[in-house]
Amino acid sequence: MLKRVISLLVSYLVLIVTCAFSVFPLYYVFVTSFSNAPSLISLDIPDLIPSHLHFSAYKYLFSSGFLERTSFPVWIRNSVFLAALTALLSVALAMTTGYALSRLNIPAKKTLATFIYVLTFFPYTVTAVPLYLLFAKLHLLNYAGLILAYTPGTSTFAAFLAKLSIDSIPTSYEEAAMIDGVSRFQAFLRIVMRLALPVVALTALLGFLGAYLDFALAYAFILPNVKLWTATIGLYYLAGLLNPASAPAYNIFAAGAVLMGIPLMALFLVSQRMMTKAYSSLAGVK
Amino acid sequence: MEYVRLENVWKEYASKKGRVQVLKGLNLSIEKGELVVILGPSGGGKTTLLRIISGLLKQDKGHVYLRGKLVDELPPKDRNVAMVFQNYAVYPFMSVFDNIAFPLKIAHEPKSKITEKVSEIARMLRIEELLDRKPNQLSGGQLQRVAIARALAKGADIILMDEPLANLDAQVRVFAREELKQLHKKLQTTIIYVTHDQTEAMSLASKVALLYDGAIQDYGEPLEVYNSPGNAWVASFIGNPPMNLFEAEVEDGWLVHREIRISIPESYSQVAKSLKRVVVGFRPESARLNEQGISAKVRMVERIGLYSILHIETSDLELRIITDPKSNFERGDIVSFSVESVVLFDAESKLNLLRVR
Predict the structure, then answer these.
(1) Are A180 and B82 a contacting pair at CB < 8 A?
(2) Among B161, B196, B231, which residue terminates a domain?
(3) Using CB atoms, which residue from A178, A179, A284 is nearest to B136?
(4) Which of B43, B90, B161, B172 is disulfide-compatible with B141, CB 3.0–4.6 A?
């Protein structure tokens, strides 16, 4: 009995400590966003439990007309748009590639799969400079270019995941559909994609996150065009981080981070539901 | 009327060890409304054959005709066949109703017609109360019915079945077999059914085709194949225990192998006359123990319950004969037996002498 209590105590202690470590930064950002002191240093330990909530940072972010009459919500909308397209393209690319690697009789299949796997080891931000030079030549320093640059960041890894996931789906499911009257492509869309839904959701989530949170590539590609700015560039600009001469306003940065988190939260809830639903419907199927 | 015809079909697979010829010039012709069971050892190309008929796989050489029309270039969706898979392939994310309705939805049938048809088929297969359920709430036997229901819903008059009963436990399998037989009687659809289970083949088939070494070795009604196998391989495959086979000399009216002497039956007397050596086959159940027959030594006794199998040794041969379960032979006993009926095969080609023309 005592042994059980001790082991429970120890495990809860470990959980509480790790939880504190992961929750504290989020809480810190949240609290900072409601303070009107722009400097991090001015925040003291008693300030961690704020006595008064200031909305000045949020007000500032929602006021329009910074540069060329744009505003932070517009930049968030831009980011969501970019990220959504990236997620869609990533899913399409990863799933078709995964399907081909898993099912179709294509030449050099094994080499290709290994190559894709190895590619995922490289961080894609190192490609920012060569991509900038290449895309400048191709007139792709715009959203199309950004999406093209973001997509491989997720889809190479996801293609490999998709291949593994499709490998585990018995071919008879899509064959049954093909005999029942659909083409191979339709069977892929209606049956394989549906059975591989956890990977589809994961790919979409990763693709969205990658594009939504990117700063380096967006900064390199679209800095001159304020109307096209993404939320990350906007936030850096508004918090004074783009200009080394100005003092950074961390309360604004924190408020922007909280606002940017809202679409992510929504997406995460949806994709998590999709994943658990997909898993539960697959349970017990041989 | 010839409904399904395979003409000189060849299929080769590339594997790690090189190329494997699975089908080597296979010919088969199936009449309308028959339930043809394709029987053969595992890995013999039975499933390959079904996949070629359905169009999921394309043959390297040869032609497939369905309903008298060449379909080599048609994709599976345009061949108007239905298929039941060994693992049922019932979509786990759809309800039973949606599964059965799937082929109808694809064909863009009106909703009222879909509902009507699905409930009609569900009633026939007694799965009406399962329509709202998800596949993971069903038992193996129920899943198998859903798979058959989906195949029927399509309304195709050719149904392919790839070992549909293999994943069921023994008791359910016997019921399912009987039901399938009744269903076929009622619907009169052409069914091509693949299995490696002899009992299933014998009890279900209106005709059985034996697939081995890339070709159909024998094709006919189950009992005809059993009693008069087309060649020595078929004789050694069909039956449990299978037919006893050994080579013998032909000596004016007798088949002789050392101490064994069996008289040539009348039906073979004409064809056997000109031959020196033949392969003799006799079923374990057509041997009778008696006082003055061929004498043999008992090597082993298998007591099945319904009968006992004696493994006996005589004239360098290991033979199996079936006896009364009440007999109490032991290893080492000397028995004598005579053979009541034999089948003769050509010593070279191993073909049944009666079927050679």
Answers:
(1) yes
(2) B231
(3) A284
(4) B172
pLDDT under 50: residue ranges of chain A: 284-286
Nearest residue in chain A measured CA to CA from B152: A180
A250-282 and A72-103 helices cross at what angle (nearest 10)? Answer: 30
CATH code that applies to domain A52-282: 1.10.3720.10
> Does B276 contact chain A (CB < 8 Å)?
no
> Is residue B356 assigned to a domain?
no
CB contact under 8 A, B56 and A281: no
Task: Identify whether residues B280 and B174 lie together within a single domain.
Answer: no
Question: Do the domain assignments include residue B329?
Answer: yes
Contacts 24+ apart (CB under 8 A), A171-174: A171/A103, A172/B85, A172/B86, A172/B87, A172/B89, A173/B89, A173/B91
pTM above 0.80, yes or no: yes
Phi first, then psi, for residue B31 (nearest 5°) are: -80, 160
Angle between helices A72-103 and A197-213 (to 10 degrees): 140
User: Is the Cβ of A81 closer than 8 Å to some Cβ of chain B?
Assistant: no
Residues of chain B contacting A283 with CB distance shorter than 8 Å = 136
A170 contacts B135? CB cut-off 8 A: no
Strands (DSSP E) found in B196-333: 207-212, 215-220, 244-251, 254-257, 260-263, 277-282, 287-303, 308-314, 317-323
Task: Inform me whether the C-beta atom of residue B91 falls under 8 Å from chain A C-beta atoms.
Answer: yes
Q: Where are the domains of chain A?
A: 52-282
Domain with residue B23: its CATH number is 3.40.50.300
Q: Is B83 on the interface with A (CB under 8 A)?
A: yes
Chain A residues within 8 A of B134 when measuring between CB atoms: 281
Give the total number of structural domains in chain B: 2
What is the predicted ipTM? 0.82
Q: How far is B192 from chain A (nearest CA, A)?
A: 15
DSSP string of A176-187, one letter each residue? HHHHTT--HHHH
Specify the 3-state DSSP secondary structure of B322. Answer: strand
Residue B148 near residue B92 (C-beta atoms within 8 A): no
Angle at B297 between CA B295 and CA B302, to 5 degrees: 120
Per-residue model confidence as pLDDT tens digits over A2-47: 899 999 999 999 999 999 999 988 888 888 888 877 666 666 777 7
Q: Determine if residue A181 is left, alpha or beta; phi over 0 gives left, psi from -120 to 50 gives alpha, anything else beta.
A: left
Tell me the per-residue pLDDT of A80-110, one tens digit each, with 9 for 90 and over: 999 999 999 999 999 999 999 999 888 888 8
Same domain, B20 and B87: yes
Q: Do B106 and A180 touch (CB under 8 A)?
A: yes
The answer to whether position B357 is within a domain reads no
Structure tokens at B339: 């053979």
Q: Which domain holds residue B256?
A: 237-346
Pick from A161, A150, A151, A86: which is nearest to A116 by CA? Answer: A161
* Residue B14 domain-assigned (yes or no): yes
Residue A176 with chain B: CB contacts under 8 Å: 83, 85, 89, 150
* Mutation for testing the B interface, residue in A105, A174, A179 having most B CBs under 10 Å: A179
